[in-house]
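Predict the 3D structure for this chain.
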Amino acid sequence: MDFTTLTIDVLKMLSVVGGYGVGIILLTIVIRALMWPLGVSQQRSMRTMQLLQPKMKAIQERYKSDPQKMQQKMMEFYKDHKFNPMAGCFPLLIQMPIFILLYSTLMSPQFIQMAGDSQFLFIKRLDATLKTTAGVSKDGVLGVGKADTFMTGKTAKVYLEGVEEPLLNVKIEKPSKAIEVQGDLVPGEAVDFKISLDNLGLKFSQLDQIKKAEIDVMDVQTKETEVVNFERKDGILVASVPTTAVESSFHVDVLVLIILFALTMVLSQKAMMAMNKNAQQDPAQAAMQKSMNTFMPIMLTFTFVIIPIPAGVLLYLISSNCFQVLQTVIINKQLEMEDAGKANKIDDDDLNNAKRIQEK
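Done. Predicted structure below.
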């Protein structure tokens, strides 16, 4: 199954109302809503962890000289209290593949050709990264830099000897590695490409009949795509495409998104900390947690400055963080009501026991 195409189809459906920016936000809401039960489980697990922390520390202190015995007692302790210490990790493990899928989708040639130049609020392009070079697609000239790399589209139009109609949608194996540059890449001079026939998803008998092919070639850095006519020569497909030099540009709107991501992440962490403010916690663990909450937003923000993250992915992350804050507040209120109900039940039971004792 082509998950990139499937994701684009879902975004198309969700983007009917207000464009692809709205579609990404709606996709975020749908994903996080489906994961709501896991969110409840995660926060309940964290709350239970805080309540059980003193007893867990007592077990660790008692059996610190016997790690194997301590591990056995901890497992028994978890079983007695029906507690899974890994339950809080499940939502994160599920979100990572979704993040990777959305990242690869917004960086794919299909999305860039279809909606890469889409605007949303102050965002000028959903496929833009903090620092990119811009080119004009399908004008017959590739805008390139000296260190640019290239990839093909997923399919090709192939012409065979003695066959009038071309073969459409011929699959290209490994589009990111199928095309090679022959010689040096010099902006302003024609670039020579070559593609091995083995990269085309055709029968061996058909490979011998290939005459030429039309293939989309994309500059990975500029996101510019050109339809290139390849001719067969010496058993490979070759083409020469004129180029022009392009300069890098800095996107302030993407920088604003990175800052918003950092702020929403801090808010999300503060909401989680507020949930546990009344719970007993080991001082060393509390200090480590505080350091993590400070370090993580800084580290991720710096990473997004260095690594090219598309504006659409940042929009997804910001929306996800906002949803997380709201979810944390709502679930925390639910858990507080559950705890209050349990406390009232215990008080009622104690009162009833006291009355029975007085009656006797």
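The chain has two domains: 3-114+251-342, 131-248.
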